[in-house]
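ok here's DUF2914 domain-containing protein:
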Amino acid sequence: MKRTIVKFRNSAFRQFIARHEKYAALLFFIGGFIFDTLTLGRIDRTYDLVVLCLYMTLLPITIYLFNLADDGKWKNTFLERYEVYFPLGIQFFFGGLISAYVIYFSRSVSLSKTISFFIILVALLLANNFLKKRISNKYLQFGIFFFVNFTFFAFMIPVFIKLMNTYVFIASGLISLTVTLGLIFLIYRSSPSTRREISLFKTISIITIMFLTINCFYIFNMIPPVPLALDTGIVAHEIVKKNGDYHITYEKSKWYYFWRDHKITYAYTSGQPVYIFTSIFAPTDIQKKIYHRWKWYNPENETWQTYEDIGYDITGGRDEGFRGYTYKNNVKLGLWKVEVITEEELVIGVIDFEIINKSSSKGKNLVKNTF
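and the structure:
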């Protein structure tokens, strides 16, 4: 055993960590992000579920080990030689989970109020790079753990139970709150140094405020409805469904608008219907009713007016998403947007366009595509 310990202490990896301790956290952070980017795909895929559940299992264990290390709990045990890696492990798991959330949420976030929650995730992802210097701050440590934990259950539970609604979200929050408070109480009871460093009342107050804040985000529709995601959104001139495929005719945007397939200006002919086609990804067997909320911008009072909510049911499981469309006749000229929303009015995505007279258009650059 002694020979093994000596060999480990003299290993090239440990010496590298010792020499570059200043940059070790950054390397672990980048490693977790790159690993997730290259390997994660569908939230309901077995590999993704295993990786995320493994991260979420190892994270609280590592936090527990790290906090008790200050009390010499692992002295003269095999864990003692690994204590230097506990903060790096915490950062790796934080980075891995948050980067996974950024990947999944980026598919669902729209340029609306839901982007605020996405910005918080990105800020946490970047801030995680500097967490090592603050990792001993237990208030910060437990706060980030609760946020990561809440987000994990918020989109993992619907995947497992094949159901997604407000009650499921509330239940997810209560489970994450219970898990977080359980970890805090366990560490507080087991670690004298933790009892000296933090106030249990203050810690619980911080977690409770975060819990209420996230629920407020949900109530005001500021959280993207993952695991649902808008894969495709197009304003079209004609849609024909044939042999299970959707043949769509629309105006192609310029190549440098890589984030949008259709042209933002729609050359309109009087009496012609305007179509909105969407493809929405949902995990296998999840059934959900979604709506296309058609809105027109009134330049007189400078407000968006809702014209109609047109809904249909989707069923998850298709890689490219569940396809569907709505349309309107006799539309007004001007700015339009169609919000793709759930029954709870959570915004999956927004399709913006401007309807102009065909005569004022320089010519349609129509293309046909099959989805």
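+1. The radius of gyration is 25 Å.
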